[in-house]
Amino acid sequence: MVAGCTGRAPQPETFTLVTELDGDELVLKNVIEVAGRQGIAVDDSCYYVSSSTALYKYDKCGNLLQSNENPFVGLALPANHFGDIDVLNGEIYTGIETFMDGVGKNIQVAVYDAATLTYKYSINWEPESGQVEVCGLAVDAENGRVWMADWVQGNELYCYDIKSRSYVGKVALRPAPKLQQGICIQNGKVLISCDDGQAEYGEADNLYIADLYDRSQVQQENGLPVSVEVKRYRTMIDFARAGEIEGLSIDPVSGELIVLSNRGARIILGMPRGFYEGYDHEIHELFVYGR
Q1: Confidence category of residue 8, pLDDT binned at 50, 70, 90
Q2: How far apart are CA 36 and CA 78, in angstroms?
Q3: pLDDT value for 1
């Protein structure tokens, strides 16, 4: 919880799309400890956080409002793992799967009610897409689509139509950033968080950016480019210790960038395996960036 916090009001005079900024312009405004270690989504009034096996709702001061620690009830396919998440029109979109030792199965977009955190329905995964894991997803509200990322391969992002709940296509990332953890989309551009630093040596993780609808590239029949150029957006030097970066989101009210990071646990093949010196548990924190 943030002492004395009253939430953050809109800043119309200074509101600038995060994706139109140089990421190094962003300034760390706040750090909020949370229960979940995987994903973050933001709407007008709340933060939604996923752990591997639970969903949490917080106000923007970091006060826990609600939790669902048995979220896989009612799923058509068994699952044990949430990745990064997003929220749109009162629904939480989650990348969900059965995950063990770097391998994902039963991939799906599972949608939950933001008011109750209960499961509603799923968008089925298309195996022919080539996707083999889902580390996270993002809603592209402007185009009515949801995109999924893949931690195992990471060469492409995979697109589904929200209304028809059907697979649209994929876009190749050039060059593909390694160890992707989360994505968020604003104004057709995607920010990608990657666990590509080395925690053993204190090396920081990075964010990357790409234009999902780059008209200068060769277009597919589905209107998506064949590939998009990926550039470094920001090196996350603000983390208290180089640990494991996870999901990210953009506050639609304040325009702030919210990045989830874990520290304390050693992560091997995507799974916690003991702790670093000085830690007896893993700490999960939201890093809030503005201008």
Answers
A1: low
A2: 20
A3: 42
